[in-house]
Design a protein that fits this description.
The complex is a heterodimer.
Chain A: H1 3-18, H2 28-36, H3 42-59, E1 71-91, E2 98-117, E3 121-128, E4 138-139, E5 150-160, E6 164-170, E7 189-196, H4 197-200, E8 243-256, E9 260-261, E10 277-278, E11 285-300, E12 303-307, E13 310-314, E14 332-333, E15 336-337, E16 345-348, E17 351-357, E18 360-371, H5 374-380, E19 403-412, E20 420-429, E21 450-460, E22 465-476, E23 494-507
Antiparallel strand pairs in A: 1-2, 1-23, 2-3, 2-4, 3-5, 5-6, 6-7, 7-8, 8-11, 9-10, 11-12, 11-13, 12-17, 13-16, 14-15, 16-18, 17-18, 18-19, 19-20, 20-21, 21-22, 22-23
Chain B: H1 2-18, E1 24-29, H2 31-34, H3 37-48, E2 53-58, H4 61-70, E3 75-78, H5 84-92, E4 97-112, E5 119-120, H6 122-130, E6 147-151, H7 156-165, E7 176-178, H8 181-190, E8 194-199, E9 208-210, E10 212-213, H9 220-224, E11 231-239, H10 244-254, H11 256-265
Parallel strand pairs in B: 1-2, 1-3, 5-10, 6-7, 6-8
Antiparallel strand pairs in B: 3-11, 4-8, 4-9, 4-11
Helix pairs in contact in B: 3-11
Classes of the chains: A mainly beta, B alpha/beta.
Chain lengths: 508, 271
C-alpha cells in the first residue's frame, strides 16, 4: 500500500469514526468515491465499512435499534401543555347568579410516532392524556394522582405521486376549518381522500409546492385550535400559476350500534317530534360524510386567499349525549331519546386572507356553517316544541338557529424564540347550526346558542417553549329563550360563560 | 487419581469442542456462492489438502452470517453485506464479523429463451418485479401475463434485489418465491412468460437468456467496472481473521488458483 493510499484509508476510516458514529452509515458514498478514484481497493473499502457499521452498532443507541427495512423514516414527536383555567358560568333564566366558578390546573401530553414506508406508504400512532374525543386535557387530581393515557391516533396512508393521499384509521382532521365547527383535538375515524387537482392536471410544478392539505404535519389547524389552518406560506408555483385546488373527502364512523328507529307513529301531543327511539339493532351504525373543496390563490409570497366550501352530513343516530364539555353522555329529554347526530346537513365555508402588515403577517379569517336541516333539528333533537318562554310563548324556529359564523383577525411575527401572535375572533352559534360534539369545547364550554369573543396571545420563549393566554367572553345568542329542554345541556342555558386559560407549552 | 484423569478428560473434551470444527471446515450461507462455486473451490482445495473435510450448507446469506455469530460455522457465505443488527448481535456474543470479498456477481434478469425481449430499462425492471406492470406488452414484449420468480426471504439476493432494482419496494404479491438460482432457472425455462433474477454464473443454462438493463449487458467487464446496474461483491464472513484450515481455505479462495475457479464457474474474479 502506498503512503498516499495509507493516509487516505486512515483518513476515510477516521472521518467516519470521528464524525460521530451517527454518520457511519452515511460514509458509503465517500467510500465508494475513494474506491472509484483507486485510493481504496474494494476489500479495503469493505473493511472500513465493517468497522464503521460495527462502531455504529455498538457505540450508538440508534445502531441497536432493529427497525424493519420497509420503514424509510421514523419520527417521534410530542408536546406537553400545562394549563391553568378559570371559568365562570352564570345562570340564564333565574338571576344571573354565578352557578359555577371553577379554577383548574390541567395538562395535556401527546406522543406521536410517524412512519414512512417504501412505496409512499405511511402510518402513525398517537397517545395522549384525557379521555374525551374533543379534549386531551387531564385535570390534575388530588394526592399527586397519576393519569391515564389513551390511543388518540392510528392510521395507515398511501400517497399517490404528489397529487393524492388516502388514509384509513383514526387520524388528524384533514379538513381546512376552524373551531367553530371542529375542535382541533378531535381525530376522526374512517377513510379520507385528498386529490390535488393542480398537481394532477397542472403539470410539473415550477418549484416545489407545499404539501397538500391532507395529512400535513400540522393537519388543518393550529395546534390549539385558535386559528384557521394556514394558507400556503411558500410560493406554490404549480402548473396553474399560483392557483391550487384540492378536494378532501372523509367517510367517518361516528358511532356504532346507535341509530334510531324513526317515527313509530304520529304523536298528537308533540306533533313535531318524530319519536326517535333507541335502536336495538346492533348492525346499524352512525356515519359522517364530509367533503370540501379547498381553493387558494397566491398573489405573491406574502399575500394569498383561501376559500374552502364544504358539506357535512350524518345519518341520524342516538349518539349518547351532545354536550361538548362532557361529550357523549346520554341525555333523556322529555321522555324521548335524542339523537345528537340527527338532522345535521351542514354547509360550511371557511376561508382566510393572508397579507403583510409591515414586517408582520396578518390574517383575516372566517367561517360559516348553515344546517339545512336546522329546523328539524331544532324541534326533533332539542324538543323546542315544548319550549315555553318566560312570557309563556312557544319558542319557534328562526333562521339564526341554524346558522353559525365566525370572523377573526390574527397578527403575528413568525415562529420560534421571541415570536408572538395576537388574535381575536367573534362568533355566533345557533342552537341547531353545528354538532356540539365537535365544536370548540372551550368556547362557552362547547354549548350552543352562544355568541362572543375569543382572544389571546402567544409568545415563543424558545423555539420549543411558548407561553399562551386565551380569553373567552361569551353570552347567549337568544337570551332567556329556552326554558323547556333545561336538561339539554348542549344548549346554552347560561346567561354567560367567561373563561381564561394560561398555557405553558413545550414540544419535543 | 481416577478423579484427576476424569477431570483431564472432561477439560480435553471441552477444549476440543471450543476449537471450532477441528479437521472440518464448516461453511454455511448464500445459495449464490454455495450451490456451485464454493463446492468446487473445496474440491480443488482438498486436492492439495486431502485431510480436510468440508460441510457446506447453502440456505441463504442470513443463515451464514447467523451461523458465524452462533459459532456453528467457520465461514459464512453471503451475497450481501452484514446488517447493523447482525453486527450488533455478533458483538454481543463476543464475535467480530469480518468480510472478505471473494468474487463479484451480477444479479441478472433472465427470461424464457423464446421471449424475444433483449433489453429492459431499470424502471421497467422495477415495475415488473413490484407488480406495477403485469403484462409483457407493457414493456415491449408479446402480450401475456408476466410470471415473476424470486428467491425466498432468507436469501441475500432477495434483499439485494429489492435494494438494487426495486427501490426497496415490496415484490409483486403474485411473485413466486423459490429456494435457489437453479430453481429459478428451471421455472423460467419452463414458463414462456416467466422472468426471474439469478447470479451471473447461472445465465448460461439451457432454456433461458439474460436481458440487458439500460442497454448494458451483464459481463465480467461491466460487472467489475460496476457499469452493469445490478453488480455486487460477494463475501465470506468470519469471526475476525481466522487461521487453521478455514483460514487456509479462505486464502485459497482469493488466491490466483481460487480466482481461476471463480471465473470458470461464471462469477467475476476480484482481480
Amino acid at each position: 500500500m502506498t503512503k498516499t493510499k495509507s493516509i487516505m484509508l486512515a483518513a476515510a476510516a477516521s472521518l467516519g469514526l470521528a464524525t460521530s458514529s451517527l454518520h457511519a452509515q452515511d460514509s458509503g458514498p465517500l467510500i465508494d468515491k475513494l474506491v472509484q478514484k483507486g485510493i481504496l481497493t474494494d476489500q479495503e473499502a469493505e473493511e472500513v465499512r465493517a468497522d464503521l457499521i460495527k462502531d455504529f452498532s455498538t457505540n450508538t443507541s440508534a445502531g441497536k435499534l432493529n427497525i424493519s427495512s420497509v420503514i424509510t423514516e421514523m419520527k417521534l414527536s410530542g408536546d406537553t401543555r400545562f394549563r391553568w383555567q378559570y371559568d365562570d358560568q352564570q345562570s340564564q333564566v333565574a338571576s344571573n347568579t354565578h352557578v359555577s366558578q371553577r379554577s383548574r390546573f390541567r395538562f395535556r401530553l401527546r406522543l406521536n410516532a410517524d412512519f414512512k414506508f417504501v412505496g409512499d406508504w405511511f402510518a402513525g400512532v398517537g397517545l395522549e392524556t384525557g379521555q374525551a374525543s374533543d379534549s386531551a386535557n387531564q385535570t390534575v387530581d388530588a394526592g399527586f394522582a397519576d393519569s391515564n393515557i389513551y390511543i388518540s391516533k392510528w392510521f395507515l396512508g398511501k400517497n399517490v405521486d404528489d397529487w393524492g393521499t388516502f388514509v384509513i384509521g383514526k387520524q388528524k382532521n384533514p379538513f381546512y376549518t376552524t373551531d367553530l365547527v371542529w375542535d382541533a383535538d378531535i381525530n376522526p375515524v374512517g377513510l379520507t381522500e385528498s386529490v390535488a387537482f393542480h398537481k394532477l392536471f397542472g403539470g410539473s410544478p415550477a418549484e416545489e409546492a407545499p404539501a397538500p392539505a391532507i395529512y400535513s404535519k400540522d393537519g388543518g389547524y393550529s395546534k390549539d385550535g385558535k386559528t384557521v389552518a394556514p394558507a400556503p406560506s411558500e410560493p406554490a408555483g404549480p402548473g396553474w400559476g399560483g392557483f391550487e385546488l384540492t378536494l378532501v373527502a372523509g367517510q367517518f364512523i361516528y358511532n356504532t350500534d346507535a341509530t334510531f328507529t324513526n317515527d313509530p307513529g304520529y304523536n298528537e301531543e308533540y306533533p313535531r317530534n318524530k319519536a326517535n327511539f333507541p335502536d336495538s339493532d346492533a348492525s346499524n351504525d352512525v356515519y359522517m360524510f364530509v367533503q370540501q373543496l379547498i381553493a387558494s390563490y397566491k398573489f405573491n409570497s406574502k399575500t394569498s386567499v383561501t376559500l374552502a366550501p364544504g358539506f357535512m352530513i350524518s345519518n341520524a343516530g342516538v349518539l349518547i349525549g351532545f354536550n361538548n364539555e362532557t361529550p357523549y353522555n346520554d341525555v333523556l329529554t322529555d321522555g324521548f331519546y335524542i339523537g345528537a347526530s340527527r338532522d345535521l346537513a351542514i354547509i360550511t365555508a371557511p376561508g382566510d386572507f393572508t397579507f403583510p402588515l409591515g414586517p408582520l403577517k396578518g390574517k383575516l379569517y372566517w367561517d360559516f356553517a348553515y344546517n339545512v336541516n336546522g329546523e328539524d333539528r331544532f324541534y326533533d333533537v332539542y324538543n323546542f316544541f315544548t319550549s315555553i318562554s318566560p312570557e309563556g310563548e312557544l319558542r319557534g324556529y328562526s333562521d339564526k338557529d341554524g346558522l353559525a359564523w365566525l370572523v377573526g383577525l390574527e397578527v403575528g411575527a413568525g415562529k420560534g424564540t421571541g415570536a408572538w401572535t395576537l388574535f381575536v375572533n367573534y362568533r355566533e352559534t345557533g342552537v341547531a347550526s353545528v354538532d356540539p360534539n365537535l365544536n370548540d369545547s372551550d368556547f362557552a364550554l362547547g354549548k350552543l346558542n352562544t355568541r362572543g369573543f375569543k382572544f389571546g396571545a402567544t409568545y415563543g420563549i424558545t423555539d420549543f417553549v411558548s407561553l399562551g393566554v386565551t380569553g373567552f367572553v361569551t353570552w347567549n345568542l337568544d337570551e332567556n329563550g329556552f326554558s323547556g329542554p333545561s336538561n339539554s345541556t348542549a344548549i346554552e342555558n347560561r346567561n354567560a360563560v367567561n373563561t381564561v386559560q394560561v398555557d405553558l407549552n413545550w414540544k419535543f | 487419581m481416577k478423579f484427576q484423569k476424569a477431570l483431564l478428560l472432561a477439560v480435553a473434551a471441552v477444549a476440543s469442542a471450543s476449537v471450532a470444527h477441528a479437521g472440518k471446515v464448516v461453511i454455511k450461507g448464500s445459495d449464490t456462492l454455495g450451490a456451485k462455486l464454493v463446492p468446487q473451490l473445496a474440491e480443488a482445495f482438498k486436492a492439495t489438502n486431502p485431510g480436510t473435510k468440508f460441510e457446506i450448507a447453502a440456505e441463504g446469506s442470513t443463515t451464514g452470517i447467523t451461523a458465524v455469530i452462533d459459532g456453528t460455522a467457520d465461514i459464512g457465505m453471503s451475497s450481501r453485506r452484514a446488517k447493523a443488527t447482525e453486527v450488533s448481535a455478533a458483538v454481543a456474543k463476543g464475535k467480530s464479523l469480518t468480510p472478505t470479498i471473494v468474487a463479484y456477481d451480477g444479479i441478472v434478469v433472465i427470461v424464457n429463451q423464446n421471449n424475444p425481449l433483449k433489453n429492459l430499462t431499470k424502471d421497467q425492471v422495477e415495475k415488473i418485479f413490484t407488480g406495477d406492470v403485469t403484462d409483457w406488452s407493457a414493456v415491449g414484449g408479446s402480450a401475456g401475463k408476466i410470471s415473476v420468480y424470486t428467491r425466498n426471504t432468507a436469501s441475500g439476493t432477495y434483499s439485494d434485489w429489492k435494494e438494487l432494482a426495486m427501490k426497496k419496494r415490496d415484490y409483486a404479491p403474485s411473485a413466486q418465491k423459490l429456494a435457489g438460482n437453479e430453481q429459478i432457472v428451471a421455472e423460467v425455462a419452463k414458463n414462456p412468460n416467466g422472468i426471474g433474477y439469478v447470479g451471473i454464473a447461472y445465465t448460461h443454462e439451457a432454456g433461458i437468456h439474460a436481458v440487458s438493463v439500460g442497454g448494458v449487458a451483464p459481463s465480467a467487464e461491466t460487472i467489475r467496472s460496476k457499469t452493469f446496474p445490478y453488480s455486487r461483491p460477494t463475501f465470506y464472513y468470519t469471526n475476525g481473521k481466522i487461521g487453521g484450515e478455514a483460514g487456509a481455505f479462505e486464502a485459497f479462495t482469493v488466491s490466483p488458483a481460487g480466482q481461476k475457479i471463480v471465473s470458470q464457474v461464471g462469477f467475476v474474479a476480484i482481480k
